[in-house]
Write a structure and sequence with these properties.
Elements: E1 2-8, E2 11-16, E3 28-37, H1 39-46, E4 61-69, E5 81-83, E6 87-88, H2 94-97, E7 108-109, E8 127-130, H3 133-136, E9 138-139, H4 146-152, H5 155-165, E10 173-177, H6 181-192, E11 197-201, H7 205-213, E12 217-219, H8 221-231, E13 237-242, H9 247-256, E14 257-265, H10 278-283, E15 287-290, H11 295-307, E16 319-322, H12 326-334, E17 341-344
Parallel strand pairs: 10-11, 10-13, 11-12, 13-14, 14-15, 16-17
Antiparallel strand pairs: 1-2, 3-4, 3-8, 3-17, 4-5, 5-9, 6-7
Helix pairs in contact: 5-6, 5-11
């Protein structure tokens, strides 16, 4: 079959790879009908994560059709249209029972090497093997367009998880650092959750314009402090959500938050350490936390919002192509010419 594979840092290629096969009775094989390219995939291709080897299939966002299932799969059958989660979970351990699927000891993250668990082949391919299929997959309802389901499977779930973790209250001033797909969907999630003001902080002018056209204010990072101060009479943002990754964006988040402010980081981090301003955090009683989206837990709620017309995550999609187009789409995303790309394998 054809798949997009990691070649070397900064380069992906389309290659012929073996068809996936059932490896455990809880597996399913899915024919991928749509796959997404995510900011995390850019980290993978840059070589930021451990365990990526030449020839590894990349990608973790997908919808498709079940082709075959293992003997222990109970709720899916061949022919079912399904939406995926970006990672797998067993569905019955203490973590899964509590709705914390990311911490399942049997977690696998599609197409990201060994950085987040055992290697698991990615979904930017014609077919993908899905472990723990009854938990990892969900039936795709007719009320949800496949492109929306792609975003529920990672980007939107991440943005919504940030809003939940921040304990956002009606009327809060929310600053979102980063105007990529995750940042934009975080801003939309904050609006749905009754934020008073949402400010997207982003150096790219096109992305700032996108945020403004979808209900947020926008500012260049150099101007963010002055704008947030003006909007809050000098107090600072109630909530700051960092959606870029890296120590610099966390520094910016700390500078924008008010005393007793809540900072949530959902950007992908590769650095092992950070010089945390402990004295300031103590003095101002600040809360700093991290969140990873859990589509398995959140997808029912997000599907309802999409079906009701309250939220359309597909507004961030501005590029579509076939698998052969994917290497060029990666380049366009890396250079911020595009916001979100969808691939038809």
């Amino acid at each position: 079959m054809h798949a997009l594979t990691y070649h070397s840092p900064g380069r992906v290629v389309v290659a012929d790879v073996p068809m996936p096969v059932i490896g455990a009775p809880t597996d399913a094989i899915v024919k991928v009908t749509l796959a997404g390219i995510c900011g995390t995939d850019l980290h993978v291709v840059r070589g930021d994560f451990a365990g990526m080897v030449p020839g590894a299939v990349v990608g973790h966002e997908f919808v498709g059709e079940v082709i075959t299932v293992g003997a222990s799969v109970l709720h899916l059958r061949p022919g079912d249209r399904v939406m995926g989660s970006d990672f797998t979970a067993c569905g019955h351990c203490r973590w899964c029972d509590g709705g914390n699927h990311w911490h399942c000891r049997e977690r696998g993250f599609f197409g990201t090497g060994s950085a987040f668990g055992d290697r698991l082949s990615g979904a930017q391919a014609e077919y993908v093997r899905v472990p723990h299929a009854d938990t990892t997959l969900a039936l795709l309802p007719s009320s949800c367009p496949p492109e929306a389901a792609i975003l529920i499977g990672d980007n939107l779930a991440t943005g919504w998880a940030a809003v939940e973790r921040a304990a956002l209250e009606p009327g809060d001033c929310v600053a979102v650092i980063g105007g990529g797909a995750v940042g934009q969907l975080t801003a939309l999630s904050a609006q749905i959750a009754s934020a008073g003001i949402v400010v997207v902080i982003e150096p790219n002018a096109r992305r700032r314009a996108f945020a403004q056209s979808h209900g947020s204010l926008a500012a260049h990072p150099d101007e963010a402090g002055a704008l947030v101060s003006k909007l809050t009479d000098g107090a600072g943002a109630d909530v700051v959500i960092e959606a870029v990754g890296g120590n610099g964006p966390i520094d910016l988040a700390m500078s924008l938050a008010r005393p007793r402010g809540r900072i949530v980081s959902i950007g992908t981090h590769a650095a092992e350490t950070y010089a945390f301003p402990v004295a300031r955090a103590f003095r101002d009683e600040m809360t700093v936390s991290f969140a990873i989206g859990d589509p398995i837990r959140l997808r029912t709620r997000l599907l309802r919002l999409v079906a009701a017309g309250a939220l359309d995550p597909t507004v961030v999609i501005d590029a579509r192509g076939t698998l052969s187009d994917a290497p060029d789409l990666y380049r366009q995303l890396e250079t911020q010419q595009r916001l979100k790309a969808i691939v038809i394998p």
